[in-house]
Amino acid sequence: MKAVIYARFSSDRQREESIEGQIRECTEYAQRQGITVVGEYIDRAKSAAKDIDKRENFLRMIRDSNKHLFEIVLVWKLDRFSRSRYDSAHYKAALKKNGVKVVSATEHIAEGPEGIILESMLEGMAEYYSAELSEKIHRGQRENALKGKNNGGGVPLGYVLNKETQRLEVDPLMAPVVREIYKRYAAGDTVREIVGDLNRRGIKTSRGRAFTMSSFNALLKNRKYIGEYRYQDVVIPGGVPAIVPEDIFNRVQAKMDKNKRAPARTKADDDFLLTTKLFCGKCGRMMVGDSGTSHTGAKHYYYKCGSAKRKTGCDKKAVKKQWIEDVVVQQTMQIVVDGPLMERITDRLLSLQGEENHDLKLLESRLADTEKGISNMLDAIQAGIITASTKQRLAELEAEKEELEQQIIENRIQHPVLSREQISFFLDQFKRTDVTDKEQRQRLIDSFVNAVYVYEDKIVFTFNYKGGAKTISLDDIQGSDLDAECPPI
Known about the structure:
Elements: E1 2-9, H1 17-33, E2 36-44, H2 56-64, E3 72-75, H3 78-81, H4 85-97, E4 101-104, H5 113-146, E5 159-162, E6 167-170, H6 175-187, H7 191-200, H8 216-221, E7 228-231, E8 234-237, H9 246-261, H10 267-270, E9 278-280, E10 287-293, E11 299-305, H11 306-309, E12 319-320, H12 321-336, H13 339-356, H14 358-382, H15 388-414, H16 420-428, H17 438-448, E13 449-454, E14 458-463, E15 469-473
Parallel strand pairs: 1-2, 1-3, 3-4, 9-13
Antiparallel strand pairs: 5-6, 7-8, 10-11, 11-12, 13-14, 14-15
Helix pairs in contact: 6-9, 12-17, 13-16, 14-15
Organism: Candidatus Ventrousia excrementavium
Domain Resolvase/invertase-type recombinase catalytic: 2-152
InterPro entries: DNA_bind_recomb_sf, DNA_bind_recombinase_dom, Resolv_N, Resolvase-like_N_sf, SSR_resolvase, Zn_ribbon_recom_dom
């Protein structure tokens, strides 16, 4: 009789060697029984309990049984064929129709009714084992999740996996890149602009590849960056170290939601100076620019809570555009003319210069790795290992070193270390801001304003410096028309 061997290993602690062992025992069994083996079908790292459609060679074997080239499918154990009683019965019936039967090389199953019962029992045990294994794996992964341990999958950009503790840790080189991406997107840069800039600077993804626009959606929505560990129904705040401040993360989510609902940016949008910075004090949603026409035909511009605009629960009144922008510019100018405060900001900027140049740190790290590679190649050459490949690799490393050194020089030229006098001079220019000029107003807001929350009776400002929070009541604002009637929605 002629037979084919079907061998399979799944990913549950089995390795490639198990295939060799299955084939060896099946071959020995065939020799003892006088069976001629005419072929092999092998599936690697494929589960027998689910996704049978992914077992390509198993299905090819079933199709090939139509050719009547073999009468036996020889397996090491019946669970190699299937761990599902339904699948086992289905495909055995298909083989039987073509005159083929399944034989186990290591399980003695008698012919007749008793053999059928035994075979059914073995298949049932295999299915039970598979279900139990799945439950154990799920239980183990859930326990891992509760302990904040990694459950597999890719490691997000900005983290490294500690193999001993199986926990994510902050990558000191790439975490600043993640923060930069979030801050730039929240400040108004497009994904295309950010991707292009990162690639021009030679920064790579965690897989060593160039950045693409398609990968940014997941990156900008990953809640691990605010320290949240999530696995199925397990959610642990603080389960991983945070990289991105929560307020910036929330602003990014709001901006992504806004961009999703409004695919085209109009000229009017560019005129709203507080876009992505103005928030509803009642519900916390971003307030977006809008306009309306009164019964007289006059055009009115205002900011409206995103929830109130979509009528999803908030009833916050709209805020007139010109009035709120004037208030924000006025409050920001008070910072600029505050001498002691600007001195403190100068001190902070002076200390931050070295911390902020993360590109330079990345380039210097890559240069160190390249120099180490060159040193290793030279050691190999001194040891007498001189081949065409080593010469070529050494030349590549030398060229890479030269390019990195040039990039480091260019980076230092583009990002010089400023003196206190230079920083003070730069900040002092804001005192001369023409508050009637739109571009200068925008520059002032972008530089100093982090977020503005508008309540019914007060406005809360958060500025871009440590401790930069300020609350003012509407009574303190002379000539306030915040509660004035707004255009219809």
